[in-house]
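Duplicate of earlier report; Fenitrothion hydrolase input re-posted below.
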Amino acid sequence: MLSLTDAVPVAHGLGGQKDLPIPLSLAVTGSVAALVISFTVLAVAWRSPRYAGRPALAVPALGRVVLSGPFQAVLKLLGLLFLAYTVMVATLGEDLLTNPVFGIFLVWLWVGIVPASLLLGPAFKAISPHRTLVELLARLTGGDPEDGIADYPARLGYWPAALGLLAFVWFELIYPFNTELGPVRLWLAAYLGVMLVGGAVFGTRFFERADPFEVYSSLLAKLSPWAVEPDDDGRDRLLLRSPLANLDTTVARPGLVAVVAVLLGSTAYDSFREAAFWVRWVQTSDHSPTLVANLAMLGTILLVAGLFSAACVLTPVRDGTARRALPAAFAHAVVPIIAGYMVAHYTTYWYERGQVTLAQVSDPFSNGSDWFGTAGLGVDYWLSEHPGFLATLKVVAVVLGHVVGVVASHERAVGLLPRRHQLTGQLALLVVMVVFTAGGLSLLFAG
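Output:
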């Protein structure tokens, strides 16, 4: 059997401090300075909301194509075929790491969501196979796909999605048997079962709140230039809009803070567990490595949620505004930070392991077949061969994500905070952003 490194490596980091074209201390110092300077410029020049109600540019010609019935049907068909293929290799394929289900699940789905959503918008929603199955079932029974037999409880918000994301990152990063076919098959079956039952009960609106991959994709899509909104006649239209204006339309719902904390905290833990000092400590410790890993990841997620929520609660509010509502109101500002960390942490993994998966899908049963003509493809290691470029990409992605997060936070603050506290009221959040930046860069280059 192939080793884990040969087939689906779990180490997603991109080198260490030696690969930085500048010293790590200088990178951290420059990044923190960029945040502080950005905040200062915003405080002086940005005194009122600029994105609320800002008109977007309609793209009618392109919209008629991508929103048309035939185009949407093709996307849904591709999603169903993707599901059928995944079910086939999960149930009939060999229990080997060359089985493409591992790459489909851990690389194409989880990591591929990031570039697809940032470039194209809510990509997972467009091809979601269980959403399509629920829509087909509703039409066959004469019902409305959006409405099930019960209303989705508003108080649940994104909490089911947060739990689903936690279940995924736990499986990927901690579960000791995640390279065996049986557990992967079980996870996927449980996920699909929950989605189909939830969609049947609550309608397709259930997926917008509870599907971990759709919620993740849709949040990242807020950073894309695309939006779909109804016109005066209630018909959907395609809009071209500033990503910051798109991000500002994120609706604060229960569980949103939990979603962003799981995404950011688990990525930070993934970097942390690869750090040399941590690996040495785990190897020499008398404690169970699995127990330590569980506590470390959960602690990192709770630390992210706690720091961010505390900074928001410390923010002065207008009369009638509940402090407990502020973390959800500002949570959208963490989405660019998540995107930056994902790009920095997973780019090489997605690029190289994605190519490996492309070769593996042509041989679904590991018998030497070549269904799609890609089995003989080699892997281009250009990114790994240019560590200086990768290190620069890391720093730029992390810093850009935090700067955009500061802008998004400032836009929300000038609309929510009392005028006399619009500057000082953001200082706690700025401090947290600085901590995330310095800590994130240190962890990414801790190898």
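The first strand starts at residue 57 and ends at 58.

Merging into the original ticket.
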